[in-house]
Amino acid sequence: MSAASPARSVEEQIVDIQRALAGPHPGFRPVHAKGLMCAGTFRGSAEARDLCRAVHLHGEPVPAVIRFSNGNGDPQIHDGLPSNRAMAVKFSLPHGEHADIVANSTDGFPARTPEEFLAFLQTQLPDPATGKPAPDKVPAFLKTHPAAAAFIERLMKKPVPASYAQVTFHGIHAFRFTNQAGVSRFGRYHWIPAAGEAFLMPEVGAKRTPDFLREELATRLARGPVSFRLDLQLAAPGDLTDDATALWPADRPVVALGRLDITTISPTGPADERRLVFDPGNLTDGIERSTDPILLARSPAYSISFDRRSRGI
After folding, report:
1. Domain count for the chain
2. Which of the residues are catalytic?
3. Residue 5 falls inside a structural domain
4. How far apart are the first and last CA of the chain?
5. Neighbours of 268 (CB within 10 A)
6. Parallel, antiparallel or unpaired: strands 61-70 and 287-289
7. Which ranges of the chain does DSSP label H, i.e. alpha helix?
8. In terms of DSSP bridges, do strands 175-178 and 169-171 run parallel, antiparallel, or are they unpaired?
9. Residue (of 205, 200, 201, 196) closest to 168 by Cα position
10. How far apart are alpha carbons 290 and 293 in whole angstroms?
11. CATH number, domain with residue 187
12. Which residues lie across from 62 on neighbouring strands?
């Protein structure tokens, strides 16, 4: 009698379903498969040095790799289709170390825990009898999960960006920031575009070329750098720091941590797509994880995903 196969972790189940929903695309991420790699420089502010001792916030220029992406798992998806977008930044630190920020165009997250997120993904799977998702499953889930419904509502208000340079990108998770004196504050990242925000209606986006976001950014960069301000929204007593679905009130204090100047689309983009992992759990001294269960699940899920795409599966 054969031994029972080991139970799959919730992170592995999430990656499995994401790959099933995306379809077979060997060697690509199961979500945010269509990416655009860029290069730039980040410089921290004086306020950042007072708030946090992390080396990339000290004010010296820090090289950065930036990846813009479409939330879909199809690497050939048309840029004009509605989707959550992401901006991931990898800071190059001394001694070969790195720190990452991952942020999305839609603030927050649709699930509080990995198990709840898995349940949300399962509602989107096709019915074996029809080959199509059951039309009532997602609405039924949203009806009983108001945070997920609110997330989808926010997503559909800004479904198609006119430019990657004109999107505000929001960090999903809270982190603890500690300064040289040992004083700590929790905060959440927000990337604010210097060019302001601009979005298209889906019917307008559908008429653009399939890769119009890359083309538009290339044209824009030919005129000069694309800049984002990195803001940190600080938590007040009582604000939830372990719940990715909970948005903090807009009147919470904000500290400008620095400025990112993107200068070029990376000539090594295709190779970088295969080898680089952007993980919000990849931190440096002065910045610590919260106990957010979605945040804690991301590193294991990314490890599973990277292993599979590295093996071309």
Report:
1. 1
2. 32
3. no
4. 30
5. 11
6. unpaired
7. 10-22, 46-51, 114-122, 137-144, 146-157, 202-205, 212-223, 269-275, 293-310
8. unpaired
9. 196
10. 9
11. 2.40.180.10
12. 42
Residue 58's domain comprises 10-310
Give helix then strand counts, H and E, for the chain: 9, 12
- Asked whether residue 146 is domain-assigned, the answer is yes
| Neighbour count for residue 168 (Cβ, 10 Å) | 17
C-alpha–C-alpha distance, residues 291 and 281, integer Å = 11
pTM here is 0.95
Residue 245 lies in a domain: yes
* Residues whose CB is less than 8 angstroms from the CB of residue 148 and which lie 6 or more positions away in sequence, other chains included: 110, 111, 120, 141, 142, 245
pLDDT tens for the 313 residues of the chain, in order: 445 556 899 999 999 999 999 999 999 999 999 999 999 999 999 999 999 999 999 999 999 999 999 999 999 999 999 999 999 999 999 999 999 999 999 999 999 999 999 999 999 999 888 888 888 999 999 999 999 999 999 999 998 999 999 999 999 999 999 999 999 999 999 999 999 999 999 999 999 999 999 999 999 999 999 999 999 999 999 999 999 999 999 999 999 999 999 999 999 888 899 899 999 999 999 999 999 999 999 999 999 999 999 988 8
Q: How many CB atoms lie within 10 A of CB 79?
A: 24
Q: Which of 71, 51, 58, 40 is nearest to 228 (CA)?
A: 40
